[in-house]
Amino acid sequence: MIIPTIPTPEEVLDKGFRRAKKAANKVRSSNIPRQQKSKKTEEARIKTACQVIEESFNMILERVPKIEELHMFYQDYIDVVVGVDELKKSLGALNWAVELLSKFENQYVFKVRRSSPQDASKVRREAFGRIASVVYRIEDELNFLDFAKSKLRNMPTIDFDATTAVIAGFPNVGKSTLLRHITTAEPKVADYPFTTTGIQIGHYERRWQSYQIIDTPGLLDRPVKDMNEIELNAMVALEHLADVILFIFDASETSGYPLESQFRLFEEIKHIFKTPIVCIFNKMDLVERVKYLDEYINKVEDPLLITAAEGTGISEIMDKLEEFNNEKKRRSRTDV
Ligand SMILES: Nc1nc2c(ncn2[C@@H]2O[C@H](COP(=O)(O)OP(=O)(O)OP(=O)(O)O)[C@@H](O)[C@H]2O)c(=O)[nH]1
């Protein structure tokens, strides 16, 4: 998300007062009658200081995207990373400062006009004091916006038009292998604060349709009860993205996780997400279709049996995703 550079109160005031001085010098060297000069000079200083500072804050307010207009995934993402309420509060404080400064501008220009030439500079000093105190009043909010800027610099770039599958399953079950086989290019890895290794996003096109497969190492690969609140919220963010979840079982159990615990994780994810889930049993090259395995395979709807390492079963997954894509298109047509 684009948050522009956030100045400190000192920087804002310095810029405002410096420009005010310049404006004053300009008036001083103009050919206004002498008796009016001191008042006109102070008037220019007050006006310029207020306007320059207002402009700095307005520029920030204009450049930060309206949070409620962002895709729900980004709204949740921002909420998890920095807090939407806090961000809105800080922007609200900037608005408050702009309104007050514009009030000061009118109030003090009027005061200078009504003052004697000798008192004009006193009025201006009073105005500058109040301007400074308003800017310092929002120091915490400026600091927060600066923190948010650095935190939100590398938001993952999501293609919201693509049909999106999010991969889930215990570590070592073959998620990356699958991602590499389905998607053509090297998956892009974006910063994602809930996972230690970043989010991996792979893309591919099929019959002129775009697909996107997302892996979030460290998030959808362990029991939900072990998750903290941030991670649970991150799951909500993912739910806004996923048209479908690909849950990968390691049928061979060579990853070290018994099918029983893998199935428990599947149940948890099914419980949390309202998104449809496609169950994929991987590493079929290492197993016999024994009764024990069949028990699990038969428990789920339309399972796909694959050997990701050899690329076997990948086209069936793509067919399945195409079905979801067609369904999504059909739904969006009837929604219009
Ligand atoms: N025999 C066999 N091995 C596989 C298959 N798919 C993946 N593997 C192996 O399983 C191991 C783990 O695969 P990864 O793709 O790294 O698994 P992952 O789920 O992405 O693991 P994390 O990144 O730790 O979550 C690797 O050594 C793969 O080569 C398969 O179909 N058959």
Describe the structure.
- The chain folds into 2 domains: 143 residues, Four Helix Bundle (Hemerythrin (Met), subunit A); 173 residues, Rossmann fold (3-Layer(aba) Sandwich).
- Helix content is 55%, strand content 12%.
- It has 11 helices and 7 strands.
- Strand 3 and strand 4 form a beta hairpin.
- It is rod-shaped, with a radius of gyration of 30 Å.
- The two termini are 29 Å apart.
- Bound molecules: guanosine-5'-triphosphate.
- The site of guanosine-5'-triphosphate (GTP) has 16 residues, from helix 7.
- The site of guanosine-5'-triphosphate has 16 residues, from helix 7.
- InterPro entries: G_OBG, GTP-bd, NOG1_N, NOG1_Rossman_fold_dom, P-loop_NTPase, Small_GTP-bd.
- Pfam families: NOG1, NOG1_N.
- It comes from Methanobacterium congolense.
- GO terms for molecular function: GTP binding.
Short key terms for the protein model shown above:
binds guanosine-5'-triphosphate; 336 residues; Four Helix Bundle (Hemerythrin (Met), subunit A); alpha/beta; rod-shaped; 2 domains; Rossmann fold; 11 helices; 55% helix
Structure summary:
With 336 residues, the protein is an alpha/beta fold. It has two domains: 9-151, Four Helix Bundle (Hemerythrin (Met), subunit A), CATH 1.20.120.1190; 163-335, Rossmann fold.
How many structurally independent domains? 2
| Computed CA radius of gyration, to the nearest angstrom | 30 Å
Euclidean distance between termini CA atoms: 29 Å
What is the CATH T-level topology of the largest domain? Rossmann fold
Strand content: 5-15%
The strand line-up of the biggest sheet is 2-3-4-1-5-6-7
Show unreliable segments: none
CATH C-level name of the largest domain: Alpha Beta
CATH superfamily placement of the largest domain: P-loop containing nucleotide triphosphate hydrolases
What's the total number of strands? 7
Structural class: alpha/beta
Keywords: GTP-binding, Nucleotide-binding
GO molecular function: GTP binding
Pfam family, one: NOG1_N
Protein name: Nucleolar GTP-binding protein 1
